[in-house]
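task queued by scheduler; priority normal; single chain, no ligands, no partner chains; default sampling; output format set to structure tokens
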Amino acid sequence: GDLQAFISSIPQDSLTHFSIGWSGLDEETLPLDLACKSLSHQAVLMEIVQSDYKEIDACSTKGIEAVRLSRNKLLERAIVSTHVLVDVSYCTQLDYLEINTADILDISGTNLPFSPNLCRFIGTSVLLANEMQNKNFQAHAEEVLTNCFDHGEVFDFAKNPWFSDIGLLESVVQRRIVLWDDFLQGGQKDYFVDTGKEVDFRQSVPVIVLDGTAIECSVNVSVAELFEFGTFPSFEFTCECATGHRREGEKCVSTALRGSAIAGIALGSIFFVALLASPFLYHWWLRKKKEKYQLLQDKMLSEQLLGDEVEALKQGWRIDLNELELVAKVDEGSFGEVWKA
């Protein structure tokens, strides 16, 4: 109530900037028609962020230069009329956007489908489409790329892991383009001297941003000779799989191994090593067994030699009865007789 009363107290058509937003802010908290009444017809900025609005008509009856509606997590529909900048980034449930024209458009992180107007009428200078979730948008990647390459200036498709079709990208951007500022004025048509192919003209080199995707592109600048108009600067993009990816047919795929593959390789490696090691382990065990047996034999031999030596010593002290000459009987007892020899 206090917020509505405050907004209502602002003179109509007086504000050039309007910025508001917090979690819990919605149509009941602040009906947007109240805010629109306070905005001038030459307003510079309308900003509603991080709110709980499900639908926003961003004062479409007024010519606002920039509209920023980012990170409204419940926003599903938005209507905008502007000529400079529209930012609806990371409105993750947004699947409908009504817009006439916008030089700069940020639809990153939304659920918006493909539109043939992208880079032709909206996002003509800059289009940011990072982390696009809608599969319809993904399915029309070729149309988006073609429109942006032919008409856009900067198009940013970063952080789209599904963007991996290098063959498709090459078919759109890997062609030689001649730079000529005035080519639109006369509807010029010409051919390359070296290839005979018809020339495509542009006024500037487009900027392609593919950070966080499976593909990276670089631009090569050269001089082209034309049959009718002489020599002009030209450019051509070269694309390749980004670091950590390799080309398989028309796709760039990750070279990183998945956990199951790593586990399989680890188990396979252990098994293979075990197979390789088992003969060595057997021979090691056999060698140890032989060594133990040899030690036992050596011990037995040592004991036998010691016994023989003791017996020899005993024989050295023993005198055979036949070797003695008995002289006289000395005495006798219970153990026998004693003789002097």
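post-processing summary
- Residues 270-276 have pLDDT under 50 and may be disordered.
- The chain has seven helices and 19 strands.
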